[in-house]
Amino acid sequence: MITKILIANRGEIACRVIRTARKLGISTVAVYSDADRDAVHVKMADEAVHIGPAPSAQSYLVIDKISEAIRATGADAVHPGYGFLSENRGFAERLEKEGVIFIGPPVRAIEAMGDKITSKKTAAEAGVNTVPGYMGLIADADEAVKISNEIGYPVMIKASAGGGGKGMRIAWNEAEAREGFQSSRNEAKSSFGDDRIFIEKFIDQPRHIEIQVLGDQHGNVIYLGERECSIQRRNQKVVEEAPSSFLDEATRKAMGEQAVALAKAVGYFSAGTVEFIVDGKRNFYFLEMNTRLQVEHPVTELITGIDLVEQMIRVANGDRLDLSQEEVRLNGWSIESRLYAEDPYRGFLPSIGRLTRYRPPEEGQLANGTITRNDTGVYEGSEISMYYDPMIAKLCTWAPSRSDAIAAMANALDDFEVDGIGHNLPFLSAVMAHSRFCSGNITTAFISEEWPEGFQGVEPDNDQARLLAAVAAFAHLTDESRKTRISGTLANHARRLGADWVVTAGDCACTLSAVLSEDCLKVQFADGTAMELVSDWMPGDQHGRFVADGRPVGVKLSKASAGWRLRFRGVDLVHHVLTPRVHALSGFMPVKQAADTSKQLLCPMPGVITQVMVQAGDTVEAGQALATVEAMKMENLLKAERKAVVKSVKAAPGQSLAVDDVIMEFE
């Protein structure tokens, strides 16, 4: 049996592997860069080895350094997690030569499936449905445009060695094909050290559905149902669920059998995923096979009860699978929300900094029968750096039905407290509340179609507006009542609080009468409706659990701008609780004007300038490329919003910039 596993990865997946290894009585070794010296996975492991500077190209991607750590610790097996070296054929070959067990598939399977061009040819030979496209190598942008025209727009430009949304672009015309080819190649080279690109037909209004396969070294391969991964942004998954609300049993069986056939064709063992694109008529086409553990594997574990990491370890040890296809059962529904360090209000641009507050919701089986699970590799005080993927945590819920799983996720997101950086919690809450998502009518275009101008927050409906007004009143009266007692208990010294208030939030105002007694607030709204709010919240608490007319809710609240910042179900607004007189006078207050930055190109995220395409004196047209910024392994192209003349260029390639640093100025 394997006795010591080195995890050649970091963050939440390293922690995930350590937990299962510990359950099996196997000791673990963590590796870490300068940036991860105090990381959770380093503290969890039995041993830890430093492997270099923060950039992954100088640490986690250096095979020699991983090999040195293996020799130094005597590890007899390596789990690669996902990303980094997980699908690197050279790494698997190196381990094989050194007599170290690779907890993953055989080298021949990595070679056949790790390259997207080769994998599509292999899939077609195995009888798997494939998407029309050009599988040969593409020399330059001119050839990319020619091929795209022959296939017919829209097309998907993809890195052959890519994954995780890196090196992928959709092109709807010649200009986008030319631009997308170059950006995809640049990203592919920086992320994977391989700039080969291929092009295939982009299927409009598709669903992204993948099949989890599991095989052993004795020729047994089974599939563990599917995962729906259609909620994506820039080809990067944001919300996943298992099973899919779209598939019927016949389609599930057909997809599963094709996935198994492909796995057997390449002699696959260990856990792997065959990804398909599915159209509105349930026609499905092979996209790629990921020869590793997927980020979204927890939802499969929650509906099958199978620990995939444990199965990977047992298979690597030479054990046979202990279940057959007929024994696989899909139970209930599970949803995963990826918590990213990115600001949804700024086009989901990466955010870095320190987690000044990180309080995940309660985990385990809750009183209502649902399950909450949070896979993470951070803690309160952790620093989110620019060197790695921006994912902070994977929040999962399970329930007997899809609607209950969505409700459980909405509640868990309400209870998740994160501060110090920009993050996508409000957006995840908005997805859970969206009627289209709740109905299951989703495609990979869901985000772009529902928020075409970008995410600007959620406007509360009438019920939410009343609830939040009542919460703001509860917070205000609780805080003010404490202040009235500061001067003593003498009645003639106490400041008395009125019952009539106006609660404002944005452009809305809610008139109400509120009386607070102990931990209960009784509210009467102007239209005659009433609400009773009960809570043990006290000033200083940044999260409150309230019972509103018998319904439990969680609201994040904190002092802000002489009011209360309330966050609930994607709503993020500052509420002011005013007396009627103060509210009437507030209409005379001047409105602060925003600074004029229209003649500047500001850096939209913390990152490194990789290219500046213009110089002082140049005239640029609307839509013209100006500069590129690389952050968290993604290349971002900055374009001119209108015709202008460049007055000065303030940044140069290789320079690190913070958010809103000036890149160039215009006349």
From TrEMBL:
Name all Biotin carboxylation domain ranges.
1-452
The GO terms describing molecular function are: ATP binding; metal ion binding; propionyl-CoA carboxylase activity
Q: Which cofactor does it need?
A: biotin
Question: Which SUPFAM superfamilies does the UniProt record give?
Answer: Glutathione synthetase ATP-binding domain-like, PreATP-grasp domain, Rudiment single hybrid motif, Single hybrid motif
**UniProt-listed GO biological process terms:** lipid catabolic process
| Catalytic class of the enzyme | ligase
Domain spans labelled ATP-grasp: 120-317
Q: Which InterPro entries match?
A: ATP-grasp (IPR011761), BC-like_N (IPR005481), Biotin_BS (IPR001882), Biotin_carboxylase_complex (IPR050856), Biotin_carboxylation_dom (IPR011764), Biotin_COase_C (IPR005482), Biotin_lipoyl (IPR000089), CPAse_ATP-bd (IPR005479)
Membrane spanning segments where? Answer: none
Keywords from the UniProt entry: ATP-binding, Biotin, Ligase, Lipid degradation, Lipid metabolism, Magnesium, Manganese, Metal-binding, Nucleotide-binding
**What reactions does this protein catalyze?**
propanoyl-CoA + hydrogencarbonate + ATP = (S)-methylmalonyl-CoA + ADP + phosphate + H(+)
By what name is this protein known?
A: propionyl-CoA carboxylase
Organism, scientific name: Sinorhizobium americanum
